[in-house]
Amino acid sequence: MSTKKTTPERLVTFSDGVFAVIITIMVLDLKRPAESTLKALLPLWPTALSYAISYLFVAIIWVNHHHLLRFAHEATPQLIWWNFAHLFMVSLVPATTVWMAATKLAAAPVFVYALVFVLVETAYIAFERAALSQASDRDITPRLLRIARIRSYLALGMFSAATAVSYWSPMSGLALVCCVLLIYLSPRIPDFLHKSVRSKPICTTSQEWRNIMKNSVAIVTGASQGIGRSTAIRLARDFSAVVLAARNAKELAEVATEVQKMGTEPLPLALDLSRPRALNSLHLATVHTDRCTRHPFRGRRDHES
Q1: pLDDT tens, 43-98?
Q2: CATH number, domain at 278?
Q3: pTM for the full model?
Q4: How far apart are CA 224 and CA 226, in angstroms?
Q5: Which of 197, 217, 235 is the last residue of a domain?
Q6: Domain residues for 251?
C-alpha cells in the first residue's frame, strides 16, 4: 500500500477558486442607479457600505487562510474537512450582505450577518489548529503559537458580542464587527506582538536554554585543542549531543571524555576537513545524530560494534 503523502497544493487551488467565486457573487449583486445623476447614488449607500465591509472581510479571510496553509505540509483528512467547513461558512457572506443592504442595515439582517462571522471564526479556529499542528518549532515558536490562538479566541469573543449588540443596535453591532478587521488585518501581527513582548532573551537561565536545546546537535571543528576544545566543553552544558571534529584522534578522545563527563554524548570524528570526503562524512554523521531524539549515538554505536 502506498504511503505517499498528499501535498496541499490542490487544496490551495480549490480554496482560491471558492474565494474568487464568493467575491464574484457579491459583485454581481451590485445594481446600477435608477437615474443618471449623482444624487441617485445616495440611496445606494447601504449597498456600498455592505459590499465594502464584506469584500474587505473576504480579502482578510483569504490572506489569513493563505498564510496558514504555509505551515501545512500534508493535506490530511482533518485539514481538508475543516477547510471545507471554513469555506462553507464564508460562502454565506454574500447572501447576508445582500439582505443587510436591501433592508438598510435593519436589526435582524445585521444580527444574522454578525452570526455568520461567529460561524466563520469558529471554523477558522478549528482550521487553524489543524494547519498549525503540522508546524514544527522552527516554523512557529510555542509562544507565537499561543499568541495566534489568543488572537483567534479574542476575535470570536468580539464577533459574539457584536451579534448580541446588533439585535438592539445594528450600527453599533456592525461597528464592532469592523473592529475585528484590526485584529486580522495582517496575518503576521502575532510576529510583531511576539517581538514586542521579547524585551528580554527567551532563555533567562541556563536550564531554560538546555530545555530548548536538549534535542539539538552542536558541531565543533578543531575540537582537539585550544578554542575548539574549550568551545566543545562549554557547549556540552547545553546540547544533548556534540559532534567533535579534528585531525588528532588521541587528543580528540580526551575531549570526548571531558564532554561525556558533562552528561552529553560526544561523537569524535578524526577528520581532515580540508578534504571534500571528510566534509561529507561530517555531514552524514550530523544528520544521523539529529534524527536520533532521546539517545543520539546509541543506535550508531550499536551498529558500529
Answers
A1: 778 788 888 889 999 999 999 998 888 888 888 899 999 999 999 999 999 999 99
A2: 3.40.50.720
A3: 0.59
A4: 7
A5: 197
A6: 206-304
